[in-house]
């Protein structure tokens, strides 16, 4: 079984970054850096501000949004316009296709969400308290999990973007702030656990401990990928108006 | 029906021998239509009605009805709860203002615009039905105006129905009718401004891409991202005691812009955060101008978009 197929990877990159889609993907991290610059001008270099900004804005909004766009964009459009049948008709293993697309999606999400988060951290806090590194690493881990989750959603449903957004914004944003238990079941908190461990003590707090968080992250990524493979094995293309 | 008149017998299938009858054109009685035509206004009305119905999934597949109907339910549920509580505890005024309802539920409204704006324009682009529309006697203006009006009306209804629930509930709870009617009127004005603003922005993003998914993500990104960014910078500015600039920052995202305009124009309390509300006439006037300018700008961009109907 071929795990990584360069042609599939190239096609996925083109689908993600071709034409105007790249504009959207460059716009989000660009805006993050602009906002970080504005905050730096307003507040100067300040660790508490940096943590609030990176946790509340970068990790809570930018990373899930980029994850939704990239994860669903890796398969969704191909299924939507039916051109996936040409890919599935080739003698390529379905796990290979999914893993290749996952690698591309994770890489793109890291490039467009985690790297800007690290840069914004540098801009806001410099190297103080290892905040930039902590949030960069957390965003990278979250990127991989989001890419796997939303890639799976993109294969399962045509409304993957809406479902993904409802999860990313409503569940992690709204439900998490009202029901404490829901917080433990969110990619964002699992990633924060890593940031908590990396950053200087007391700067970042997470709802879950690191061992549990990393186990849950690994389980989520693996399960989503496995189900994506299973769904792609028996994919039917149904028309819908 | 007039009988077809034949002016000559049919020519033989094989090549006619020299000297036979020349080829002729048969008049089989087709006639012009020269009765009254329904014209552009009719097309505009039909397109408006069809798009408005489509925005709630009516006339589309059952699966397309699910999401809009869920969102309608989510919009109405808080109003029903508020009314129930108000009636049960015999309040003498509603716990929230009519104008604040859209601000509190902005995530739901944003999701609705994001899911229905691409449905209104992206699918036309992707399945190339736009070219068929423009083969009818309509101008660009008719298409853009009909789609814009339909989505605005749909968003207006989405927020106006819960406001009416609140109003009816307030009257049932025997609250003063004058104050409640004034509040409802203000709320409806705010709702109209909001629906024009949000659906304009949504349509501009959706018309830029034939892919529905990217349209949805782009619109949501525009709304939530700008709101999160403005909120973050505003609270940091507040912590640093730079309060004079916070109302100006509020002009930069659709929701806070709407909130500021409502506060200044309609004289209501801010639903976003009272300390960020516009204080001077300058901010308020700029906000109103910016809102109207954005609506006009969105319409202009849509007109430009459809100058050439291509996929790229």
From TrEMBL, chain A:
Keyword Acyltransferase in annotation: no
Statement: the UniProt record of this protein carries the keyword Lipid metabolism: no
Transmembrane parts of this sequence: 21-43, 49-70, 102-125, 131-153, 160-179, 208-229
Keywords: Membrane, Transmembrane, Transmembrane helix
The protein's name in its UniProt record: ABC transporter permease
Organism expressing this protein natively: Streptomyces thermolineatus
High-level lineage: Bacteria, Bacillati, Actinomycetota, Actinomycetes, Kitasatosporales
């Amino acid at each position: 079984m071929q795990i990584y197929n360069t042609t599939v990877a190239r096609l996925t990159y083109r689908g993600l970054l071709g034409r105007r889609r790249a504009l959207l993907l460059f716009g989000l991290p660009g805006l993050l850096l602009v906002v970080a610059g504005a905050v730096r001008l307003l507040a100067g270099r300040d660790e508490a501000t940096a943590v609030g900004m990176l946790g509340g804005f970068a990790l809570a909004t930018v990373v899930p949004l980029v994850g939704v766009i990239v994860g669903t964009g890796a398969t969704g459009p191909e299924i939507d316009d039916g051109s996936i049948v040409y890919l599935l008709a080739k003698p390529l293993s379905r796990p290979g296709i999914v893993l290749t697309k996952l690698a591309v999606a994770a890489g793109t999400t890291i490039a467009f969400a985690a790297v800007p988060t690290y840069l914004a951290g540098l801009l806001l806090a410099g190297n103080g308290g290892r905040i930039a590194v902590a949030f960069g690493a957390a965003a990278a881990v979250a990127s991989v999990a989001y890419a796997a989750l939303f890639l799976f959603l993109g294969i399962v449903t045509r409304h993957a973007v809406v479902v993904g957004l409802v999860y990313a914004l409503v569940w992690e944003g709204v439900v998490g702030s009202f029901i404490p238990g829901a917080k433990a079941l969110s990619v964002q908190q699992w990633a924060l656990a890593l940031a908590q461990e990396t950053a200087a003590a007391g700067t970042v707090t997470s709802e879950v401990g690191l061992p549990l968080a990393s186990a849950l992250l690994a389980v989520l990524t693996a399960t989503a990928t496995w189900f994506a493979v299973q769904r792609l094995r028996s994919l039917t293309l149904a028309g819908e108006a | 029906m007039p009988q077809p008149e034949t002016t000559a017998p049919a020519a033989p299938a094989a090549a006619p021998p020299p000297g036979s009858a020349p080829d002729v054109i048969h008049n089989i009685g087709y006639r012009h239509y020269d009765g009254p035509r329904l014209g552009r206004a009719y097309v505009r009305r039909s397109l408006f009605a069809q798009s408005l119905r489509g925005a709630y999934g009516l006339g589309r597949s059952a699966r397309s009805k699910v999401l809009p109907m869920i969102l309608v339910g989510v919009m109405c549920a808080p109003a029903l709860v508020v009314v129930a509580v108000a009636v049960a505890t015999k309040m003498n005024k509603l716990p929230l203002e009519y104008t604040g309802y859209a601000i509190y539920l902005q995530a739901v409204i944003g999701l609705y615009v994001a899911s229905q704006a691409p449905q209104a324009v992206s699918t036309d682009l992707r399945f190339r039905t736009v070219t068929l529309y423009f083969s009818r006697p309509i101008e660009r203006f008719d298409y853009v105006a009909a789609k814009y009006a339909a989505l605005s009306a749909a968003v207006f209804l989405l927020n106006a129905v819960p406001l009416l629930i609140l109003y009816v509930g307030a009257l049932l709870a025997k609250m003063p009718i004058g104050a409640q009617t004034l509040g409802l009127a203000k709320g409806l004005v705010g709702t109209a401004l909001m629906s024009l603003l949000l659906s304009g922005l949504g349509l501009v993003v959706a018309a830029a891409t034939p892919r529905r998914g990217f349209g949805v993500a782009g619109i949501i990104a525009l709304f939530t991202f700008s709101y999160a960014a403005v909120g973050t910078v505003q609270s940091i500015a507040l912590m640093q005691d730079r309060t004079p600039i916070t109302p100006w920052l509020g002009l930069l995202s659709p929701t806070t812009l709407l909130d500021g305009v409502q506060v200044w124009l309609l004289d209501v309390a801010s639903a976003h955060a009272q300390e960020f509300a516009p204080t001077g006439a300058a901010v308020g006037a700029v906000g109103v101008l910016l809102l109207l300018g954005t609506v006009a700008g969105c319409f202009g961009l849509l007109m430009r978009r459809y100058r050439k109907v291509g996929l790229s």
